[in-house]
Amino acid sequence: MRAPRTRRAWPYGLLGLAVAASLAVVVPLATAPAAQAAEPVVVATSTFEDGTTQGWVPRADETVAPSTAAAHTGSGSLLVTGRTRSWEGPVLDLLDTVELGTRYTLSVWVRLAAGEADAQARLSVERRTDGTPSYDQVVGNTTVTAGTWVNLQGQYTLAQEVEFLTVYVETASGTPALHIDDFALSYVPALPIQTDLPSVKDVLAGEFPIGAAVSRAQLIGNHAQLLSKHFDSVTAGNAMKWDATQPVEGEFRFTDADAIVAFAEANGMQVRGHTLAWHNQTPSWVFADTAGNPLPVTAASKELVLTRLETHIREIAGRYAGKISAWDVVNEVIDEGQSDGIRRSRWYELTGLDFIRTAFRVAREVDPAAKLFINDYNTNVPAKRDHLFNLVSQLRAEGVPIDGVGHQMHVNVDWPSVSETEAMLTRFIPLGVEQQITEMDISIYTNSGESFPTPPQDRLLRQAYRYRDLFDLYRRYSADITSVTLWGLADDDTWLDSFPVTRIDAPLLFDRQLQAKPAYWGVVDPSQIGVTPTPTPSGSPTSSPSPTASPTSGPTPTPTTTPSPTPTVNPTPTPTPTPTPTPTVPAGSCRVSYSVAGQWPGGFQGEVRVTNTGTSAINGWTLRWTFTAGQQLTQAWNGTGAQSGSQVTITAATWNANLPAGASVSVGFLADWTGSNPAPTAFTLNGSSCTVS
Ligand code: XIL
To answer: Which end of the chain has fewer CB atoms at under 10 Å, N or C?
Structure first.
């Protein structure tokens, strides 16, 4: 694949990726808004204003032609007629345009030709590797009409080398004629990851492994670097689920899961297997007869689905035997709304509890080394927790090999309280089971009605305090908790962007450009985010925002109706720029080197290395310099940064305050710039000038 042909700044601001508002007040930079998204770069557009098809062709026998009968902007569009099959539609070759591992946004406007009845359209990608085609949906079925233009916009990352790559518009059924217009393919340039930060896994070493749920696309480039730097455990976010591994009976697909396991092995990471039996992301054939009809509730049906379950587990768990630290054998089987607490899934309707018994028995048989878990969400909710406790007690008493309970911990900035979460952990201790946090994320939203174009700073701070407090709890129970996993690597790829509603969420430790957020510091070094404790709402709701596992099924999340006390989030704690008393640094006994690690329109990442060239230790330091061209810091790490006017002040973090003779410390930061970005020429350490190299 060649480099993209054309790149220019995104002209429309359509993607809602805002540029940083400048900071009006001096704030500790570890608590400042995380790096703001840079401008998207547009790689390809099709406006159909020049009377050509601009490279778009038919997928098969239909006709594509320039048209002025309708236009989203300007006067031209592309008209597709003569479709005879629903998958026919306008297609564009992207092989030379798209790069492996880059997360693209694809956007196109669709309108049916005059007189056509409403239909469902979608935006799809066809790719081929070694001649084998695969089809990915960028935007799922969306209602389109002849009366209005509808935007199909979604994200796509190519995770595998291909020899064929196209994007096309098709319909779910029917063959209406349609127009497309204003296609755009863009991406936000990735930033280098921050290499000078403490690794989360090192900070937590000796307590529990820390994991992230990933897709295959995150095993490439900057994402892979971030993953291996900070995490020592990994979960396949989707790649080991039934729909991914056995979409058709007897046809197993392991390419993505294999890649994740291989990456983990190569990087010395544990693998959590997720998941063997679940009511979501399980193809309908599992519960259907050979003609595709739903199975009736009979003894024969029960035998059939238990056989299918056994076959499935033998294939998947058997394939990775010895390589998996823990399997989520069954997922989300509790429903506290039922009097017996058991979810009425198709599994349960057809087999009772026997699918759980079979799943654990077979998993233990084929992978005796893996710890076997029962995994669920909202296990902090007392009623749900207690039903889970009862089920695990009952099944273990029967001899079902359940080793542990997985708490998903899809939570938010307000809920649940630490004490309720502690009660969740202590409840299971008498059972003698392992406990793991399996899918943690902290939504910035407290109910389904909220939506922010950009995560507000106070929410990011509240989130950081929640991460601090919950990890503090986990550390206190590290004898009982054998693993903690976050449900994602960074905010650029989170299921919460589309669940329970479509909006921009930011639930993880790293932002959309993979830079550390206040949440990261909440886990790694809470002194960086101020000292105000988060008041935890008391009397937390028992009917909570319930993250159910699928946007399409399961109970609808209930918005929190309990008024949430607004925690005092210490929005602008004024840093003390100079510690008192300031240790003196003899003149000339420090050296500073300043470099720009990466620069893009409007922003850059800088690094400043300070060396103690004197003969005695400096215990506590403050570094200062002046930006001469209006540059403005937005975030710092390995130190607390602030800017007042043009003067930048960085004070040591607790863990690097002591600088022995001859030692160096490296501070990283993000800043905005316009016009020019000259390097500062003078630096002081505790007031004394340093040499500059
Ligand atoms: C989610 C994935 O992250 C999404 O990509 C997918 O579309 C739906 O499932 N509980 C679970 C996970 O056990 O498997 C779910 O993962 C999130 C909720």
So the answer is: C
